[in-house]
Amino acid sequence: MTEEPPRNAMDTDGADAGQGLWQACVEQLAQDLPEQQFNTWIKPLTAQVAPDFSKITLLVANRFKLDWIRAQYAGRISALLEALYGQPITLELALAQREAVTRTYVRPVASEPTPSAEPPPSNGGGEDATPGVFRTRLNAALTFETLVEGTANRMARSAAMHVAGSPGHLYNPLFIYGGVGLGKTHLMHAVGNRLLADRPDAKVLYIHAEQFVSDVVKAYQRRTFDEFKERYHSLDLLLIDDVQFFANKDRTQEEFFNAFEALLAKKSHIVMTSDTYPKGLANIHDRLVSRFDSGLTVALEPPELEMRVAILINKARAEGAEMPEEVAFFVAKNVRSNVRELEGALRKILAYSRFNQKEVSIQLAREALRDLLSIQNRQISVENIQKTVADYYKIKVADMYSKKRPASIARPRQIAMYLAKELTQKSLPEIGELFGGRDHTTVLHAVRKIAGERQQLTELNQQLHVLEQTLKG
Ligand SMILES: Nc1ncnc2c1ncn2[C@@H]1O[C@H](COP(=O)(O)OP(=O)(O)OP(=O)(O)O)[C@@H](O)[C@H]1O
Q: Which of 217, 285, 335, 397 has its CA 20 to 30 A from that of 85?
């Protein structure tokens, strides 16, 4: 039995309350989803709810359905359960008869497709291949049209569009790097989808680096390297995600090197993504790293405020909801790190609005995101910023208040002032006071300077991104 009674939808304890929570979720989904989708995927599910509400296990009839529900609906169900219950609940999916496959839903899958009535293509290459049929593994929802453009992705987007329009020529390979949830996977799928729209016969494959590793292992075990080569070396466009996963996998690196050379020799295009630039990759052979860097390497930056606002408004619209601009600004100011987190915040707000049958407003967003906002408010103080920045740049915290002026100290101090203005509600004079009694014009100068440089200098922008992530915990 739970010590703390479940909130909102439930007013009883134990199993009944658990089923009540699930029922409330199902009812909401029945309203949100097209009838056919709801009847096919959601209605047949049964739920087991842990007595303390820490976990909900959904029982699914077969593995195919399980994978599809995980990819298409788990994010939405998870957010809805959290909105209804008032705190996170672990969502698991298991096979109904024999709980052989149990998969915990942790976070939205990188390329999580938007719900659609269509089941996933079941033809394909690799393990689940139907002989003679080629599967691209592309997600049709991830296109250039659904990708919001901003300063943060302008260069990567335009390079990707160029590749899609004229593969095999400039920018080969195209290497896209950046932090989590910034749109690398989306951009890759967009290239593949655009090329296929222009040339439906093109052989395009999207694959995550881990899947490539697994294909190499299988080819090795089964001695099917000829098939493996035939599969990879015959592509027109290879989109390979998260190549940092090749680290320390020598055999995979060798096979990837061979595929790389073969594809480039026949003027096929390769697009790769990674969490860092090629020379920053650890435990990858030099000859591969230099190949990765031999075309065009572009970074995806964290989206700027206006871009975050546009993303929220667009995504709300795609969900059939309207998000007023002032609400989008409020959310975008509070959720800064990446697009995936923005999507999570949006899902919470929409679920909260639907469940409570209230219009989307700043007040409603504040309530729906209360946990997130309270974590931020609790953690981010000017003192915390000063300490984090001092640690990061390896200076003393006391230098934040001192009158010392060498650049090695003055610059981190300006960065800390900028972050204090960005991440706290403090006024310029208050911040000046906390930095050793400095004048507010000094703070204003620092804030403007760092904000301006952030737009120009990739390295500074990334450092600020890391600091922001650290401060938000
Ligand atoms: N500019 C954008 N406009 C609209 N949606 C975006 C944009 N950038 C990212 N997204 C969305 O944000 C989510 C996360 O993006 P994506 O999975 O491409 O990130 P990623 O950089 O590949 O992250 P990871 O490294 O964690 O795999 C996706 O749902 C994607 O569609």
A: 335
